[in-house]
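Team,

Forwarding the record for the chain on the shared tracking sheet. I've put the sequence and predicted structure together so nobody has to dig through attachments.
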Amino acid sequence: VQLQASGGGSVQPGGSLRLACAASGGTFSDYIMGWFRQAPGKEREFVATISWSGSSTVYGGSVKGRFTISRSNPVNTVYLQMNNLKPEDTAVYYCAADLVADHTSKVVSTTGGEYDYWGQGTQVTVSS
């Protein structure tokens, strides 16, 4: 599956952005989807994950309550709504797809090593 992330940009603290990740070349509902980010000089950080159906979500501690992950299987897209952005949210954001054998074996994936496919990343800069 190929993943194409979009929606990054520059925003002031307290602002909002919505990232989108479009998937192609596979059956989208076969994948758990996730967002990760990496700031310069830092390790990759888990941001959020969503189950194949969209009914289950998990968030990283630093974004909980501010970010919302969602998906639309008919249009093969996962979204990340980011509100109340802070300078420490500045990073390259990556979407990722974890192919699951069936819809009951695993619901969400919170570590990068679980994911099979990665998008190219989109830059988010939060600065005044």
